[in-house]
Amino acid sequence: MDNDINLDIVHTPVMLNEVLSFIPKDAKIVIDATLGEGGHTKAMLDFNLEVHSFERDSIILEIAKKRLKNYDRFYYYNNTYDNMINELDENLIGNIDFILYDLGVSLFHFKKAERGFSFKDNSRLDMRLGINEKSAYDIVNGYTEEELERILRDYGEMNNARKMANIIVKERNRRKIETSRELENIIFHNTDKAGRYGKIHPATLVFQAIRIEVNNELNILEKSISNIASILKPNGVAVLISYHSLEDRIVKKFFKENEKTKNKDGIFKILNNKVKVPTSEEIKLNPASRSAKLRAVEKI
User: Fold this and answer.
1) Cβ-contact 244, 157 below 8 angstroms
2) Measuring CA to CA, how many Å separate 85 from each of 92, 152, 281, 297?
3) Residue 202 and residue 188: Cα distance in Å, rounded?
4) What residues are paired with 240 via a beta bridge?
5) Phi, psi for residue 25 in degrees, rounded to 5
6) CA-to-CA distance for 12 and 9, rounded, in angstroms?
7) Full pLDDT tens readout for the chain, 300 residues
8) Nearest to 139 by CA among 199, 66, 83, 212
9) For position 114, what pLDDT does the model report?
10) pLDDT score at 128
11) Alpha-carbon distance 187 to 87, whole Å?
12) pLDDT at 110
């Protein structure tokens, strides 16, 4: 499937109106740190902005390029967004009016990519969002029990991380765990009845933890946001949309630590002290938006 780029656009840009409302009125040059299929980028191009977009997955980048081929102010980079400070021309550094991070994994990866992101299909365990050395298969079948426990605890926030790591190791010792369905079955059948039929599927947090480890997501986020102030011009704005508590915690902590207040020097003014979330109407139309949290800051 990865070779087929003639795919329908399956991703709806999250909180689009809210995102656009934060773009400074005199903005000229903006960054979409997470291009995906190009929904947010297209909206910004339609405002006649010059948009520099980053996408780590070359397959999904081709989809976006095809979609946006008629725009002449669209510039794209096949790289992770923590490398934007190295990828951008020197004259752009410190002259960007607006940066958007939509940290959600595109629905393309869950529905079309066939890389084992979802336990609803039966694809080989991969979960790579781009060119990575290790895959989910390598982690599930190669990490020590202690390493598995660490990522399930730290990235899945699982209370039973030790037990689940032990179960995975026992099962892989019988035979290698090859596919997303195999891993899901192992988790499901080793979860008590209350956990099997709770609010979320018991495999959800395991898959989240493995995906974060495969793609180094939290380290890349921390590295990238530390460069926001250098990239933005004075009064430039950064908007970050996160989808789980680990990401939101990193973003909230960074903004709070660097907020300018009466009693503290800082580099940011927080534009929404109360985090923005999607409207009930948006969640109804786009259920994938339901856990989104938007935070915005302005560079002093």
Assistant:
1) no
2) 9, 31, 37, 19
3) 6
4) 101, 295
5) -60, -30
6) 8
7) 344 444 454 568 999 999 999 999 999 999 999 998 899 999 999 999 999 999 998 888 998 999 999 999 999 999 999 999 999 999 999 999 999 999 976 554 445 444 545 556 778 898 888 766 799 999 999 999 999 999 999 999 999 999 999 999 999 999 999 999 999 999 999 987 767 776 778 888 999 999 999 999 999 999 999 999 999 999 999 999 999 999 999 999 999 999 998 888 999 999 998 999 999 999 999 888 899 999 999 999
8) 212
9) 46
10) 87
11) 41
12) 45
The identity of residue 265, as a single letter, is D
Per DSSP, the residues of the chain read -TT-------PPPTTHHHHHHTS-TT--EEEES--TTSHHHHHHHTTT-EEEEE-S-HHHHHHHHHHTTT-TTEEEE-S-GGGHHHHS-GGGTT-EEEEEEE-SPPHHHHHTS-SS--TTS--BS---SSS-S--HHHHHHHS-HHHHHHHHHHTT--TTHHHHHHHHHHHHHHS---BHHHHHHHHHHTS-HHHHTSSS-TTHHHHHHHHHHHHTHHHHHHHHHTTHHHHEEEEEEEEEEE-SHHHHHHHHHHHHHTB-BTTB--SEEES-SSPB---HHHHHH-GGGTT-EEEEEEE-
Give the other-Cβ count within 10 Å of 91's Cβ.
7
Contact 232, 241 (CB under 8 A): no
Query: Count of alpha carbons within 13 Å of 53, Cβ hemisphere only?
Result: 30
Contacts 24+ apart (CB under 8 A), 283-291: 285/12, 286/12, 286/14, 288/12, 288/14, 288/104, 288/107, 289/12, 289/14, 289/15, 291/243, 291/244
Tell me the C-alpha distance between 50 and 55, whole Å. Answer: 17
The pTM (predicted TM-score) of the whole model is: 0.88
